[in-house]
Amino acid sequence: METSHGICRIAVSLGENHSRALLEQVEHWQSFLALVNMIMFCTGIPGHYPVNETTSSLTLTFWYTLQDDIMSFEAEKQAVYLQVYRPVYFQLVDVLLHKAQFPTDEEYASWSSDEKEQFRIYRVDISDTLMYVYEMLGAELLSNLYDKLGRLLTNAEQPTSWQHTEALLYGFQSIAETIDVNYSDVIPGLIGLIPRININNVQLADTVMFTIGALAEWLADHPVMLSSVLPLVLQALGNPDLSVSSVSTLKKICRECKYDLPPYATNIVAVSQEVLIKQIHKTSQCMWLMQALGFLLSALPVEDILRNLHSLITPYIQQLEKLAEETPNPSNKLAIIHILGLLSNLFTTLDITKQEDESGESAPPVKSTPPQSGPNPVVVVLQQVFALIQTVLSKWLNDSQVVEAVCAIFEKSVKTLLHDFAPMVSQLSEMLGQMYSTIPQSSRSLMDQFAEVLFSMNKHCFGLLTVWLKEALQSPGFPSSRVSDEQKDTFSQQVLRERVNKRRVKDIVKEFTLVCRGLHGTEYAAEY
Fold it and tell me: A Gene Ontology biological process annotation (predicted)?
């Protein structure tokens, strides 16, 4: 193994450092092609990385270099090189997908956690290489993969290994995650093939999920195909081994396809509620799931949103009421933070004011929902739970994590609701004021949370915040007897002026806090 490793290093080094020079020596093209084939052998060296071999990973950067050099030539010369090297790169795809295959279940079970992690990273490197190679091979690569997958799944005479199927899907996923495949004529066929896959393995199921997720934008343009894949996603949602892949895929579908999901909404909400109640998923996946439901509910009529919200969050509100009555301890702290996190993640994406995705790009107007009438559902819920949140906050005021979780609910709600947040401004402002004058020993992190909410209100509810700041700061002795009316006016003007620079608002709040506490200019100021 050491000998082959050394030879491979020499071949790769020669190829990487002299690729362009060797390409330009057209009279010796066969010699360079022989070197390329030697490196191809090293890429496809027998055995599974990293248990049986560690050589193949050394070669991946060479294929980037060679492709870059070929594509850098002028069009006429490039066409000649592509005629020679496109077949080589198609062969490379086959080799890489073979190397990406999982070993047998028994062998994989014997690997250490470190070996499994190295193999995962190796597959990511292969995925990146396939994505890059696509730039050279184009749509023909997708057709090639589709043909192979189709033959594999429709050949009843020859039994297929799940590893082979998984690797081909992984190739599709690698490309679809980063490349716009909406134009591709093979994607409908791929979506049609997915339900035919005999999913009897966690790794295969994971890749099926991630492949569906990678095609979410395509599904938004072809909603008739949702019925083929959505049942698979909802079924996978109940499997804790598929937690990351199933939840992230559902989130992508709900974000990209939300205007086509109302017929499926009842089922999606019901399955999601079930897995949340059973606590199948870890905290981060629970948060993703709530974001998915926020996207989903955004496209429904207000009365349907309110009905679904009631069934979805009532159990958590009841649990929070019980927790609020208990004496603070580490156990109920985690439960409180979890519930507040679920609410803030739901409110992050539950947006009926405009049809926008996470990146801020407007959705196509042809798919927009009709104008909504009546109160904003998020405001309705916030008004219902506001007193409860205040109770929780009063008991946990000196705990930065709980305060952060409370602030996150309102900060994310303001960002989502924009002017619809208006009915809540006076209540929230009053709560912020109470927070500010009752936590004299607050850490910098708590003041940062205060500043986050203040910044969001300033950005999205400027007029109402202006009125509240003026009224609040007129009160004698508020927020401290140490600050003069002139200093209050300066603070107010500075905050209201900063509607873009969040860091500056945090600095303004910090400086004002130090003045209120008589610490400005002292050695204690460094702590903040």
Answer: protein import into nucleus
CA distances from 91 to 36, 141, 148 (A): 12, 11, 13
Measured distance CA(206)–CA(203) in Å, rounded: 5
User: What pLDDT, in 10s, does the model give residues 228-239?
Assistant: 999 999 999 999
Tell whether the torsion through CA atoms of 298, 303, 304 and 307 is positive or negative: positive
**458-489 residue pLDDT tens:** 888 888 888 888 888 888 888 888 888 899 89
Which has the closest alpha carbon to 101: 131, 118, 86, 123?
A: 123
State the CB neighbour count (10 A cutoff) for residue 61: 14
Tokens of residue 124, six digits: 């990511």
CA–chain centroid gap for 33, Å, is 42
This prediction's pTM = 0.84
Nearest C-alpha neighbor of 265 from the set 247, 257, 240, 276: 257
Q: What separation in angstroms does the CA of 208 have from each of 234, 281, 345, 526? A: 13, 19, 26, 52
Task: Please report the pLDDT score of residue 354 as a whole number.
Answer: 55
Report CA Rg, the chain.
Answer: 29
Intra-chain end-to-end CA distance of the chain, in Å: 57
Q: Helices 444-460 and 485-497 meet at what angle, rounded to 10?
A: 60
| pLDDT attached to residue 355 | 44
Give the whole-angstrom CA distance, residue 363 versus residue 427. 33
pLDDT tier at 25 (50, 70, 90 boundaries)? confident
Q: What are the φ and ψ backbone dihedral angles of 326, each rounded to 5 degrees?
A: -80, 155
Residue 446: Cβ within 10 Å count: 22
Backbone dihedral angles phi then psi of residue 460, each to the nearest 5 degrees: -110, -15
Both tokens assigned to 371: 């104008």
Beta bridge partner(s), residue 362: 356
At 362, is the secondary structure helix, strand, or coil?
strand
